[in-house]
Design a protein that fits this description.
globular, alpha/beta, Rossmann fold, four-stranded parallel sheet, 9% strand, 268 residues, 4 strands
Length: 268
């Protein structure tokens, strides 16, 4: 069965750990990755507010088609290479050189298994509605971390680039919290139209109870695990220190506490 997997979430939400788990199980994630395991090609093409703001579905679909073609180990034609290069080089959010871009696009992915492959890039969730429409065999994993962890994260790049999509004021003190809430609500709403193609994984539960959460994740992906492999994968997630204090939790309104509990985060 042909299977494509993508992993997204807010920056600092734990997407790297999920990618490590999947990669360690044998899922192919590509060859051009940075240290956090982000797919550099996806970043260069799609981490671009101007692209999403245009709402140009024809262009976005073509770029997604070419991205998938490249990830599946197929060679891009000269015209396809030029098309995607123009988009990359016009992206003001990522400084790409022509030489480096050409190398990535023309480099053959020799080890790719076109039947099962994946990419991880936090900004993926911004394009989720396009992805689910244009890539029928895609399954998307959205990593959700405790909202207070995200509120006090130093990684605020997404709210800067995409906050306007959610009418979030970048000067607001609670901008990161609001982005966490609104972006997660959006993923949940989109998922209602795509049965069993979107999976929200609670990062805090993954770290505190890795074996059960990994088993649930791979059941969603329809990938079988041996007991030995499951035991190995369960050693990857590690419990991390909270970024918030009890007083921060106590400062939340009843509505905010209710939302946290609804999404499976401990508020006690």
């Amino acid at each position: 069965m042909k299977r494509i997997i993508s992993v997204g979430g807010l920056g600092g939400s734990g997407t790297r750990v999920v990618a490590q788990v999947l990669s360690s199980s044998g899922v192919y994630f590509g060859e051009h990755l940075n240290l956090p395991l982000d797919n550099i090609l996806f970043t260069r093409i799609f981490k671009n507010p101007k692209l999403i703001d245009t709402g140009n579905e024809i262009k976005i679909k073509r770029l997604l088609d070419l991205f998938c073609k490249k990830m599946q180990g197929q060679n891009l034609s000269i015209s396809e290479t030029i098309y995607i290069s123009k988009s990359i080089l016009s992206n003001k959010c990522y400084n790409s050189s022509l030489q480096d871009t050409y190398y990535i696009l023309r480099h053959k992915n020799e080890t790719c298994n076109p039947e099962t492959w994946a990419w991880k890039e936090p900004n993926t969730h911004i394009y989720l509605d396009y992805l689910l429409r244009y890539i029928p065999n895609l399954k998307y994993i959205h990593v959700v971390r405790n909202g207070l962890d995200m509120k006090y994260s130093i990684n605020k790049k997404q709210v800067k680039n995409w906050g306007h999509l959610f009418n979030i004021d970048n000067n607001s003190e609670n901008k990161q919290w609001n982005f966490w809430v609104k972006s997660t609500e959006r993923i949940i709403e989109i998922s209602k139209n795509y049965n069993n193609r979107v999976y929200l994984i609670n990062y805090n539960k993954l770290c505190s109870n890795p074996k059960d959460e990994i088993l649930k994740l791979f059941t969603f992906l329809e990938i079988n695990l041996t007991e030995n492999l499951l035991e190995h994968l369960s050693t990857i997630p590690k419990v991390t220190k909270k970024k918030y204090l009890i007083k921060d939790l106590q400062s939340l309104s009843d509505k905010e506490l209710e939302l946290m509990e609804k999404w499976g985060f401990n508020t006690k």
